[in-house]
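Handoff note, outgoing to incoming analyst
You'll be picking up this chain. Sequence as last confirmed:
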Amino acid sequence: MTGLTQKEQRISDTMARRRILVSALSGVALAAVALIYLSATAPRPGQPSGAPGAVPIQPPRSLGAGGPALRIGAPAPPFAAKRFGGGTLALADLRGKGVVVNFFASWCLPCREEARDLEATFQKYRAQGITFLAVDIQQDTWEDAGAFLKEFGISYPAIRDEDGSIAARYQMFGLPTTFFIDKDGILRAKYVGPFLGPEGLNELERRIAAVLPQNR
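Most recent structure output, in case you need it:
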């Protein structure tokens, strides 16, 4: 077996360069995905220093497919789903109230850490026209989520996003994520990560103040 001809050597070199290029592009793609997750799940202003950020979740396959775009200052994407305890609940059913929509899962540690404070804050503001709505994501189970709600004494409405369509419309990448919707159904704010400690609760209340019915 003799050595490679000049033509064969050129072909071999070309293929080697292509493999290097493909590897480099793959690295860039992975870095871009990582950057998206980091930006989506990084702690936001008002979150206590050192507090755990959001837990990354697999984006729904239908992400961005159908429905209105998610924009602050625009109508919040509508949805309806089965609620824990029976029946169904639609976002439109809550029109006239300021709505705090909190996406959670039973296995999400930051969700567990903020759960009791969310319930206490709901009790504080419910007489002022504020309601909370818990949305359990597709990657959970009815049983585990139900146990979570019972464990933390969650008394505000809770629904289950069985097919992932609500998470897709709200462009979910991490848990917990909380949305603030005013009495007219307009999305006013989004917060990625848990509300922890005094600073976190101050941030939560500041955002609630922006959707209090009497303030709009």
